[in-house]
Design brief:
This protein has one domain. 19% of the residues lie in helices and 30% in strands.
């Protein structure tokens, strides 16, 4: 005898099936934030307030031939300032009502405070990255991969400008890392003057975003770079020496929490005050890479 069709199913008895919520959360992915400590910092000058930092430019002097019986040739260069304007005040805020705070299986205050801190740190990095497209010296056109010749050319530009050989950085997106992986002398270190012990392929990353060095220039990988839409679409990577760019943080990222009784909720705000500036144009190269 057939059983019929009045059997219990997931549809008829769904109310008895519990829904489970993990105490673990799936956080949004994060970019490597690598730029804020790679540029010249002027935070120390802002401890007593102010909204503009005037950085005097000092010219080189020249030599002159001394003619017997004549006075020396005096030099009086007309100097100018490079100004860093402290005009960026950024904040990230959220409000958590008591009901959701009490009933949630996740510590929302802790989780979102952490996310807010990351948002502010990313903004600082983004502000520095936005300066890359302002370098007058360029390599590549956005339609080709990074290649050895362009890397060498960019280094030449820094050498021609007498940029110090220390504190040089090459900042690229993951697609740029893939391009560099095809340069044998970089990843295998088998050519003259290279050591296999320094290969990022052999040893892996050496820190957050740090992938290795190329001709003495430290290479960092981040997705937090400016992409310029067009034909072709260009990613503004950069090779620069530390003094090319400046960051001045007047108020370090600050976290404040206040209970708002009228909302029966906790308000959390994270904010920062800062300014950025290109300081030495010849110490940087806008490395245009295809997206």
């Amino acid at each position: 005898m057939p059983l019929g069709t009045n059997n219990m199913t997931k549809t008829t008895d769904d109310i008895f099936v519990p829904e489970l919520w993990s105490s673990e959360v799936l956080r949004a992915t994060r970019s490597n934030l690598v730029l804020a400590d790679k540029v010249k910092r002027y935070d120390f000058m802002l401890k007593k307030g102010g909204d503009v930092i005037h950085v005097p430019n000092l010219s080189n002097l020249t030599t002159n031939s001394k003619v017997a019986g004549s006075q020396v040739t005096l030099q009086a260069p007309t100097e100018i300032n490079t100004d860093i304007t402290i005009d960026q005040h950024k904040e990230t805020s959220f409000l958590v009502e008591d009901l959701i705070a009490v009933q949630s299986s996740t510590n929302l205050m802790s989780e979102y405070t952490n996310q807010a801190g990351y948002a502010i740190a990313k903004d600082l990095d983004s502000a520095v990255a936005a300066l890359f497209s302002g370098f007058s010296q360029t390599v590549g056109n956005g339609s080709t991969d990074i290649n050895d010749a362009n890397v060498i050319r960019a280094i030449q530009y820094l050498d021609d400008a007498d940029a110090p050989e220390s504190d040089r950085y090459f900042i690229v997106k993951p697609s740029g890392k893939a391009d560099l992986a095809y340069i044998d002398k970089f990843v295998l270190r088998t050519g003259a003057g290279w050591s296999p012990s320094d290969s990022p392929i052999i040893n892996g990353n050496k820190g957050p975003g740090f992938w290795g060095d190329l001709y003495g220039v430290k290479v960092y990988i981040t997705t937090n770079l400016v992409t310029q839409a067009g034909t072709p679409t260009i990613v503004h990577s950069a090779m620069f020496q530390k003094e090319a760019l400046a960051l001045a943080v007047q108020q370090s990222p600050r976290t404040q929490r206040q209970y708002k009784q009228e909302y029966l909720a906790d308000l959390v705000t994270v904010d920062v005050i800062y300014g950025v500036k290109e300081m030495r144009d010849s110490f940087g190269v806008d490395f245009k890479v295809q997206a």
